[in-house]
Amino acid sequence: MRLLINGQEKQAPPLSTVAELAEWLKLPAFGCAIELNSEVIRRNDHQTTPLKDGDRLEVVRLVGGG
């Protein structure tokens, strides 16, 4: 499966949902936002939001500091 993640083309295994993508990327349970084809996907919808070949994703991780 070909995905464009943060502007870089990636070859991923077959992934069905945004939740599977988050697991594949080893994203933490909290502190991340995922945008799919210019739409932010709510965490509650990760399990039911499908992915397809060629999707464009932006993954943002929150960073604390001071």
Helix and strand topology:
Elements: E1 2-5, E2 8-11, H1 18-24, E3 32-36, E4 39-41, E5 56-61
Parallel strand pairs: 1-5
Antiparallel strand pairs: 1-2, 3-4, 3-5
Strand order of the largest sheet: 2-1-5-3-4
Q: How many strand elements? A: 5
The quaternary state of the protein chains shown equals: single chain
Instruction: Note the overall shape.
Output: globular
Spatial gap, N to C terminus: 39 Å
**Elements, N to C (H/E):** EEHEEE
Class derived from helix and strand content: mainly beta
Radius of gyration, whole Å: 12 Å
| Mean pLDDT reading | 95
Count up the helices: 1
Low-confidence stretches: none
Q: Tell me the helix content.
A: 10-25%
- How large a portion of the residues is in β-strands, by DSSP E? 25-35%
Biggest β-sheet strands, sense, barrel: 5 strands, mixed
TL;DR?
The protein has one helix and five strands, in the order ββαβββ. It has one helix at 18-24; strands at residues 2-5, 8-11, 32-36, 39-41, 56-61.
Task: Describe the protein in words.
By secondary structure, this protein is mainly beta. The protein is 11% helix and 33% strand. It has one helix at 18-24, and strands at residues 2-5, 8-11, 32-36, 39-41, 56-61. It has a five-stranded mixed beta sheet with strand order 2-1-5-3-4, with no helix packed on it.
Task: Describe the structure using short key phrases.
single chain, 66 residues, mainly beta, 1 helix, 5 strands
